[in-house]
Amino acid sequence: MITFILSIIFLIISYFVYGRIVERKFGADPGRLTPAYRKTDGVDFVPLKPGKIFLIQFLNIAGLGPIFGAIAGAMWGPVAFIWIVGGSVFMGAVHDYFSGMLSVRHDGASIPEVVGNYLGKPVQYFMRFFAVVLLILVGVVFVKGPASILKELTGFNVSILVAVIFIYYLLATMIPIDKLIGKIYPVFGLSLLIMAVGIIVALVFGDFKIPELVPENIRNMHDNPGKFPIFPMLFITIACGAISGFHSTQSPLMARCLPNEKDGKMIFYGAMITEGIVALIWAAVAMSFFGGIRELGEVMSEEGHNAAWVVNEICNSLLGKIGGILAIVGVVAAPITSGDTAFRSARLTIADSFKLKQNNLTKRLLVTIPIFAIGLLLTQIDFGVIWRYFGWANQTLATIVLWAAAVYMLKTGGKFWFVLIPATFMTAVTTTYILVAPEGFQLPYVFSYISGTSIALVLMGWFLFKNFKMNISS
User: Fold this and answer.
1) How do residues 364-388 score in pLDDT, each as one tens digit?
2) Residues 6+ apart with CB under 8 A from 421
3) In angstroms, how far is CA 460 from the centroid of its own chain?
4) DSSP-based helix, strand, coil % in the chain, nearest 5
5) Quick one: how many helices (H) and strands (E) in the chain?
6) How far is Cα of residue 18 from the mean position of the Cα atoms in its chain?
7) pLDDT the model gives residue 386
8) Cβ atoms of residues 283 and 196 within 8 Å
9) Burial call 5-44: b when 16+ CB within 10 Å, e when fewer
10) Each residue of 61-77: pLDDT tens digit?
11) N or C: which end of the chain has fewer CB within 10 A?
């Protein structure tokens, strides 16, 4: 319990201390007019209150990520606490802040356009395709998942439920952001936070033995450590709640609604820290609810016992009837709210790529209809194999955004180490993972570790060489 409490305290303090450092290094300017006012169109560029934006951003980036990922990551033991806390503070929150604020500085541009400004046209073209594919996949998976759960609750046919969810997605993608998303997201965001607070109260006052981060527990406690080494598997498994590239596709949505650059710390850095706290809570309760880490692994290995089942069991047991309602919100509403903003982000990314203004309904339909046609087709495909690549693709996207942020700091003459180190580390993680993973090249561990680390260090060396050249020429 001591490790758990100290971790939460560290996350909260980091928001005020490290968040302020990041904000200062970036150079947030309260006097600069934001795109919400300069480009107001009543659809996507709409000034909103900071508190409302925070809740929308939190729900956009959270969904099920910090819950399901943390439950899966808990099987590695207390080392998951280190990654959640360190990842959230020094990587995830930095990544989210820069993806949001760089979008603000570039007229609310989607992340491929932002990245292209700093990493070049070839990367921009790749990111346009990569981001849209990722977003459509997220949207489709967050149709089938909730539909299957709703079938168990209501008895309705899955196809009918898929159609209903898709109709909602179409509306959420097209309607002005303040008319639907701006009204219901804060409610769902509060529901997720209330569920997290309820769990933490039950943990503190209940009879739970949360593993402490003591020397004998700083090891791989997974039931199959040979197949699932801490590096890089844990860093891919817990994405939302530590660092997630999907967040960078969502931040521009709120960048277009930000009333003042000084609100960026609360909305972008703060929402990520809040998500880290939620992940920490769910990792802790997963490690202790069933009696221990070994018991968690045994439960998860049983047929039909997935992360959604664990959420339902924990909420109903610890929070009673209210918990049951919150569990439904968590495993149904949360993924739906991630799915609709995924499709909305896909629309904006395509519109930005082809310079299509979106203040006209016909132009929005021109972009939206093909996206949903592809999405409907993809619901007929088994995602068992494809979706395993999502974790790697997600962290790869985060890595690219961090490199763009590092180049931004380099070009503006600021201190860049606080971005360069996370970018280098995540390069090692994603490269090593795709080399060693079962769904990757399945190469030997030692070779993969050496190769992944070497590639990361080469990129860091190239970056430092560029910095050296710039200093010499100036």
Assistant:
1) 888 888 888 888 777 766 555 555 6
2) 90
3) 25
4) 75, 0, 25
5) 21, 0
6) 20
7) 58
8) no
9) eebbebbeebbeebbeebbebbebeeeeebbbeeeeeebb
10) 886 778 888 999 999 99
11) C
CATH of 2-400, one of 3.30.310, 3.20.20, 1.20.1740, 1.10.3210: 1.20.1740
Q: Is 408 helix (H, G, I), strand (E, B) or coil?
A: helix
- Among the residue ranges 29-38, 375-384, 412-421, the one predicted with the least confidence is 375-384
Q: Output phi, psi for 173, to 5 deg.
A: -75, -30
358 three-state secondary structure: coil
Would you list the DSSP string of 19-62?
HHHHHHHHT--TTSPPHHHHT--SSS-----HHHHHHHHHHHHH
Q: Which letter does DSSP use for residue 448 in this model?
A: H
Which tokens is 98 given? 């820069």
Domain extents for the chain?
A: 2-400
Query: Average pLDDT for residues 274-285, to the nearest whole number?
Result: 94
Which ranges constitute the DSSP H helices of 329-474?
A: 334-353, 361-378, 390-411, 417-436, 445-473
Which residues make Cβ contacts (< 8 Å) with residue 192, sequence separation at least 6?
Answer: 58, 59, 62, 278, 329, 330, 334
**Token pair listed for 348:** 């904006």
